[in-house]
Amino acid sequence: MVEIVEPNTCVRGCCTSSTIPLHLPPSSYALLAPIARGSESTVYDARLGGARVAVKKPVLSTADDLDKFHRELQLLCKLDHPGLAKLVAAHARPPNYMLFFQFYESRNLAEKLHVQEWNPSIDQVLTIACDLGKALQYLHNLGIVHRDVKPANILLDKDLRPHLADFGLAMYKKDLKHVSVENWKSSGKPTGGFHKRNMVGTLIYMAPEILRKDIQTEKSDVYSFGISINELLTGVVPYTDLRAEAQAHTVLEMSYTEQQLTAAVVSEGLRPILAHREAGAPSDLLSLIKRCWDPNPLHRPSFDDIVEELTLIMEHVEKGSCPPSVSPSNQCQHGMMDLQYFKELNWFDQGEQLARITNAEKSNMRLWVSFFNESHYHPTLSWGSFATCGRRETMEDTHFMLPQMCNEKDVHAFGIFDGHRGAAAAEFSARALPVFLQNTGYTCSPTDALIEAFTRTDEAFRDGLVLHRNSKRIFQKDWHPGCTAVTALIVRNRLFVANAGDCRAILSRSGHPFPMSKDHVASCADERMRVIKEGIEVKWLVDTWRVGPAALQVTRSIGDDDLKPAVTARPEITETSLAADDELLVMASDGLWDVLSNEDVISIIKDTVKEPAMCSKRLATEAVERGSKDNITVVVVFLRPVSTAERIY
Ligand SMILES: Nc1ncnc2c1ncn2[C@@H]1O[C@H](COP(=O)(O)OP(=O)(O)OP(=O)(O)O)[C@@H](O)[C@H]1O
Ligand SMILES: [Mn+2]
Ligand SMILES: [Mn+2]
């Protein structure tokens, strides 16, 4: 565009380049109108040798500002990537200091979203995310951290491809440890007065470790990337439900002071509202965003992982979009619709499919009843359940109730599953385990059938994971979902409870709690020893004993591929004969038992209307009120006839 005149350096000689002219004759360029007044510079629409460019002219009021200009220029001279705003020239000699960039026609992403109210298709979102991811991957591989990733610094060209701009805060990772946040803020960030208004707007992209004034790493860029991509998907300014920027910022400023927002993000884990699945966002993209804004920088993926995952997601969206067989009325109107055909893995269905009923047609066979003689005592059952997400964002508990299983009037089964590291294992097990139980029930004793049902469910689930990982329907690395499980089986007057993990079942016998299971947690010495003996480390972490690198608290579970065989799915079985003094059975996930003792549970039911679903709900509600932070699932089974009018035994 413009000739390079040697020596091609800045006035100090610290910036050099073989391709970018670093000083320009005044006649070669013309600044036209200012297009943006940033906090630290003015950006002009300009011409350079006839071409349209954007000129960034920094405000230079101190020696520090000058140092900063030279640092930014040095860095820019080294960068060359299609996802980064391209420096085409600079003038780095007094009295003029200017950076000349290629001009990007379609404004920055913040304006595009909040001024033009642009609605990108999922394809466009994925393309931008992927291009941006690659640009950041390039920077991180050079050891550079951007430190100011946000939609206002993402420029769009005429094809709406993104170009990351504004290296005003970028630094080499190796120099980061020496920067305190105090320096960081004064290195050009607005701190008060006129700029106060923009401060919260900048805070919303900052990772908790920065807000906490802790060490920052390249993973802080990952956090900002996650917040920005979610903003792109939802179209709303983070922490508001508003699209238009001016309005949104007023709301933001009114809802939060700088301190309040900082405290909420750091201590309460506040995050923007995640984009909706219904809006067509693939769940894998949502889960990626959530991992990007994980409070722990170590749990956030690297840009190598992010780019790999985004590429796979894009391939799936492409493959899944608009198969020729769909009827014209279902044809996609615009990109957002494409994802109706993006088939998600449904783990409930997977459980059903992988545990097919094998003996269904053998109608002459009976489930277990032949194991037991007609007894003189017959429990009379009524049952109900209640499940709540509680204070958690997602529900990872599931349960099943199969009274009069296979039309046997004296055979009943109930189960609760409490998922961790995702809901997949719990969803799978709720469908698969009852089928395996039934399949083995025709030939094995209740105890053996329960053990088989647990271990086969576990194997089928882990096989399923491997299968889907190989066929690339799952691309999350190191994802090992699991669940704890408790199942009660009643055959005539015999009660069997199988348990693996920290769900719990108790009987109310003569008005007192009678435990039917033992919690399998690492704080139990026997369990801890067993796990260690089978080769998995158990460590005291923060407040309790935890298993393996995953830091699980439970020592038995379905799934948890990475901790097998030590964290076994083999249940412990407790059995008893029911008699007239057995009033009821309560089963629940640990969200209930965390805050209520066995005695509490029995006494709460004693003064609740004797209706099992209402008792379940009352228990869960009480647990939430007492501060349980977990998902809570409760199943209550009355074992004697009760009238709902009966309030006290
Ligand atoms: N190459 C370009 N083409 C088109 N517009 C640009 C270009 N570079 C910058 N802009 C516009 O100018 C704005 C400010 O640019 P930049 O972020 O580099 O400046 P800044 O002073 O560091 O701003 P900040 O307040 O974010 O620190 C951008 O958001 C964009 O709207
Ligand atoms: Mn900027
Ligand atoms: Mn800046």
UniProtKB/TrEMBL annotation:
The gene is LOC103722343. PROSITE patterns: PPM_2, PROTEIN_KINASE_DOM, PROTEIN_KINASE_ST. Keywords: ATP-binding, Hydrolase, Kinase, Magnesium, Manganese, Metal-binding, Multifunctional enzyme, Nucleotide-binding, Protein phosphatase, Serine/threonine-protein kinase, Transferase. GO terms for molecular function: ATP binding; metal ion binding; protein serine/threonine kinase activity; protein serine/threonine phosphatase activity. Its cofactor is Mn(2+); Mg(2+). Residues 29-312 form the Protein kinase domain. This is Protein kinase and PP2C-like domain-containing protein. InterPro entries: Kinase-like_dom_sf, PPM-type-like_dom_sf, PPM-type_phosphatase-like_dom, Prot_kinase_dom, Ser/Thr_kinase_AS, Ser/Thr_Kinases-Pseudokinases. In the C-terminal section; belongs to the PP2C family. Residues 382-639 form the PPM-type phosphatase domain. It catalyses: L-threonyl-[protein] + ATP = O-phospho-L-threonyl-[protein] + ADP + H(+); O-phospho-L-threonyl-[protein] + H2O = L-threonyl-[protein] + phosphate; L-seryl-[protein] + ATP = O-phospho-L-seryl-[protein] + ADP + H(+); O-phospho-L-seryl-[protein] + H2O = L-seryl-[protein] + phosphate. The keyword Kinase applies. It comes from Phoenix dactylifera. Its EC number is 2.7.11.1, 3.1.3.16. Pfam families: Pkinase, PP2C.
